[in-house]
């Protein structure tokens, strides 16, 4: 690439456009995604497209379908290296199809694997981290007017081993490319109009937020709101690249995520929920025993969520699917314990709550008025979490959404 072309490439208005599985699951949806890319191109941007695999479990090219097919063929589990090779196939196929569809519309495009796009990772198969991004090839393509279509969710080691980036990896790919290319913004296209004040499946009157801060949306994603992977938010925040969550199937503006946002709402911006939690109450009989319990759980890759430590008692929550492993650890240590399954963590989120007296009182009063019992709680500068019985999830979401007037239009 000539030096003058490289300088020109650096001056381009680059935009990253990531399309999830729903957006590329069939030809009709892919045509709508292609139209978004062409619209960006006509608006003066130089788009870099990131795609997920086509569809979800049960559909032939979805990642989970490919894994299930391979396990059926071999009659068991694959090792991590071979599984990453299989898991990368869905996104590679999707990239080739999208690039070909752009070409058919008269726009030069090039499908690239994660490795071909310069995403060099460590060797943690199944949950690799991009450590050595190399933007030169993408910049060269952009300088030639070619639209790169990158397979999300994957990278390659320095030894040319294919790796995958873990769940939500296509969001991570888009975020890394945004920082790597110093993009104007990273757009995440999905099948919803943006980030909402609550899950609309539970609360139909939930509203789309026009803007939130990186920190707020990180807390939303980390506490159960399935809009964008927390790792992608963290990467974009470190690089100060705006994120925009938009709907592939309409022209609504979506939600813009930057450093600071004023929503015109109360001290909260969102109520998130994370179901399938289990609470464990462990009886401590000697000093320092709680640290040993937590270390043994960590050794078994059991992540702790809400935690309260008392002189003779340890309360914490875990993913309910990990209960058998957690109980095995406690029983091996001869720790007396009790379990409460089928719980849900409700999280009230908003950066404006910091330093405002009475927020926790309002939350507890609103839940009490709705007949919701709080089993455990924890808080931080912008999040107050309450553990409740999962059967009361809808009641709790509605109570907090109404108490803080989140239905108010912005």
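Sequence proposed for the structure above (410 residues):
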């Amino acid at each position: 690439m000539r030096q003058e072309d490289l300088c020109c490439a650096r001056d381009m208005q680059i935009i990253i456009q990531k399309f999830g599985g729903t957006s590329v699951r069939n030809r009709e949806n892919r045509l709508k995604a292609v139209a978004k890319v062409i619209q960006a191109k006509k608006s003066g941007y130089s788009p870099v497209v990131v795609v997920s695999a086509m569809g979800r479990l049960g559909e032939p090219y979805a990642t989970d379908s490919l894994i299930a097919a391979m396990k059926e063929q071999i009659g068991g589990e694959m090792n991590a290296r071979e599984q990453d090779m299989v898991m990368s196939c869905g996104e590679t196929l999707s990239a080739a199809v999208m690039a070909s569809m752009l070409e058919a519309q008269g726009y030069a495009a090039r499908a690239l694997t994660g490795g071909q796009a310069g995403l060099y990772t460590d060797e943690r198969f199944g949950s690799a981290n991009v450590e050595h991004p190399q933007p030169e090839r993408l910049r060269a393509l952009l300088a030639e007017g070619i639209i790169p279509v990158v397979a999300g969710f994957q990278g390659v080691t320095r030894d040319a081993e294919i790796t995958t980036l873990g769940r939500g990896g296509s969001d991570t790919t888009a975020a890394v490319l945004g920082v790597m290319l110093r993009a104007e913004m990273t757009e995440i296209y999905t099948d919803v109009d943006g980030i909402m004040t609550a899950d609309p499946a539970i609360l139909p009157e939930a509203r789309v937020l026009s803007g939130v801060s990186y920190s707020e949306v990180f807390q939303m994603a980390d506490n159960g709101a399935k809009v964008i992977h927390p790792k992608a938010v963290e990467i974009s925040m470190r690089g100060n690249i705006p994120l925009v969550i938009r709907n592939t199937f309409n022209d609504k503006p979506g939600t813009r995520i930057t450093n600071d946002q004023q929503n015109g709402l109360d001290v909260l911006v969102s109520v998130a929920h994370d179901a399938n939690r289990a609470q464990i109450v462990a009886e401590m009989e000697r000093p320092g025993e709680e640290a040993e319990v937590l270390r043994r759980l960590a050794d078994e890759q059991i992540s702790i969520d809400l935690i309260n430590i008392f002189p003779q008692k340890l309360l914490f929550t875990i993913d309910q699917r990990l209960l058998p492993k957690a109980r095995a650890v406690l029983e091996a240590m001869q720790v007396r314990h009790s379990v409460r399954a089928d719980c849900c963590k409700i999280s009230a989120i908003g950066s404006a709550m910091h330093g405002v007296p009475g927020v926790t009182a309002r939350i507890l009063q609103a839940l009490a008025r709705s007949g919701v019992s709080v089993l455990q709680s924890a808080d931080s500068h912008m999040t107050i979490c309450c553990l409740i019985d999962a059967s009361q999830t809808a009641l709790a979401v509605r109570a907090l959404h109404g108490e803080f007037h989140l239905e108010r239009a912005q």
